[in-house]
Design a protein that fits this description.
Layout (H helix, E strand, L loop, with lengths): L2 H9 L31 E2 L4 E3 L5 E5 L8 H13 L6 E5 L9 H5 L16 H17 L9 H28 L6 E4 L2 E4 L4 E3 H9 L26 H5 L15 E7 L6 E5 L2 H5 L4 E7 L8 E6 L2 H10 L2 E4 L8 H18 L3 E6 L2 H7 L4 E7 L11 E7 L2 E6 L4 H12 L6 E5 L13 H11 L6 E4 L2 H6 L7 E9 L5 E11 L1 H9 L12 H4 L11 E9 L13 H18 L4 H6 L6 H14 L10 E9 L2 E12 L2 E12 L6 H21 L4 E2 L2 E2 L17 E6 L17 H13 L10
Parallel strand pairs: 3-4, 8-18, 16-17, 20-21, 24-27
Antiparallel strand pairs: 1-2, 2-3, 5-6, 6-7, 8-11, 9-12, 10-11, 13-21, 14-19, 15-16, 15-18, 19-20, 22-23, 23-24, 25-26
Amino acid sequence: MTRRTWLWSVLGGTGALVVGWSGLPPRSRLGGPDTLPSAAGAVGLNGWIAVRPDGQVHLAMPWAEIGQGVHTALAMLVAEEMNLRLDQVQPIEAPHEKIYGNLAAFEASLPFHPRHTEPGRETLDVRLGQWMVRKLARELGIVVTGGSSTLADSWDTLRLAAATARAQLLGAASLQWKLPVAELTVEAGVVRHAGAQQAHYGELAAAAQTTRPGEVRFKPREQWTLIGQPQPRLDAPAKSRGQARFGIDVRQPGQRFAALRHAPALGGRIGALRNEAAVRAMPGVLGIHRLPAPADGTESVAVVATNTGLALMALRALDVEALPPERGGADSARILQSLQDEARRAAAEDAGFSFHADGDATGLLARSAEVVEALYHAPYLAHATMEPMNATARVDAQGVEVWAPTQVPGLARAAAARQAGVPESQVQLHMTLSGGGFGRRLEVDSVVQAVALAQQLPGQTVQLLWPREEDFGHDLYRPAGAALLRAALDSQGRIRALSIHSSGDAITPRWMARNVPWLSGPIDTPDKTAAEGLYDLPYAIPNQRMRHVATRSGVPIGNWRAVGHSHNAFFSEGFIDELAHAARRDPLAFRLAMLDEAPRHAAVLRLAAEKAGWGQPPAAGRARGLALHESFGSIVALVLEVSLEGGRPRVHRAVCAVDCGTAINPDGVAQQVEGSLIFGLSAALSGRIDIVGGVVQQTNFPAQMPLTLRETPAIETHLVPSSRAPTGMGEPAVPPVAPALANALFVLTGQRRRSLPLA
């Protein structure tokens, strides 16, 4: 099956549906003045904006703050359009309403090549697919903080909500003062007229609520004073003072604390609790409870105590009989070998789902006397967030109340309702700050477990915590993957044909079955995340073919920061570098020669190379490697300067160039680049999950060590100026890290590394 055939079968294959495909304007997501519940006497102007009596503005915030600074960036959009200071905008938790659903994340799940989605270049299937998916996402209203999609999703909607609110407030002042709106100005939320009349937004809000806005216009770019300027993060003071409340910080009157232990093997079971009576008698212990396995999870036992320390102490003392999985334990070495074998078989038989095909790559490769071939592979990886998995829940006759650090509040609420057997209307979910997400908090397993435990303790609030060992040992891992890449070069050293056959588990069907079961079917649909970073290369290669074979390893897998790009970029950019050396070309010049039709990519690559001093020799004992990759709509080029210390790679300098459209907060972009590079280097150097007999061998950070401060390179971030709509930066700087490092190590050692980790 090809990508186009699948799309038409899924979307109905009828041009009649195209009528009105632009009928999802941002205005359809504004909501009404009653959408946002009143807090502190605030008057709602639409579903996003409410104004307090003192003039402070409440901004409905459905998206999770997981360290990416999104609350600050979105507050900047509102402050800009409403002529407010940034500190006059206060993000508040949004209610559970469909208008807050993320459309961009679902639209991005369509497997279109980026060049086919450029404005003015969309084909019929692209336009139809985007309209259908946005329509479906609008009806579902699923809030997702993921896929680096928040800024892309909110850009037009939030600015329109703020501009509309501004127009209503100015209209109210105009009616009260009987003056034309054109004669009014606004500064820091105060409306003024040259004739001395003035009022702040809080004094106008009640009248504005019933005032029809006049013509609503976005503030011209040349008048921006906040967007594009570095701004301090709104959450920095509270976090610096220890006042920010993460999931693990939730405290309620009479709260109980629990820690859990899963059966050691993935999918294993809990047998006898051999010393249960003795542990129940330990100081502070209030109970021991068995918990069923959540979807794709493992049975566990939880100890409830008066505080977390006592719960952990008792849990360690508990002697648990571990029963093996019913279907036997997974083995990562065997799985990784089978993935490599599957990639070879797919290449030999041209098997797998076709994500991209141009020209006749298969025929040209068959007729070529010299073919460059390489087999790449990558291991499973854990998320290893700083804040371990946790959730707090209470179940009583009135319903369910949950506090959770989650990236999917609506899905977490639905999962809590299913577990408790109550309607969603009887579940109140509070989304806290998250100590890192990386895709792990797109899952609802810890919420389900907390509610299951609370059901056994009716009327009591209980906080469930996963110890770090459980976090490593029972994650939903980044899947292992393999790819066989084959290419033929012409006499000028240009790529004539490129064929890629990859293999690995499909993430999206597994995620949907766990978290959106009502949308999950009995047959897996092709998963874009498995092929992203392989089928969507920016290079002008006349003959390309990319196929993927979806496997079912039995290992629980999920979204990991940058998802498929995280390892597929290592495969593709490592191989492009191999081809440059095979052609005896400079890796920079080799890439630029294929980017005539991708000027944005070329500009990013040139900027990174210029700032890194590419072409000038590095210090003795060092080498440079580069990589270029687009993901989630953002383009990143990275140059790493590397040496070897005691046989281990040491990165001294990282120069990153970025085109992410309009950089709302340049400081925020730089912070995300820095965090992504440290995250990516940590994974590239030592990240791996080994499974033997179903048991994960890594149990804590020493086995998957993040970079220390001493090991962290000097990091430079350079932005390409752009007037395009913003795209996300929570993930795009991760994918180029591993290939840039491997490419530098090849220059340094002459050995090509085709598997991760690299240390």
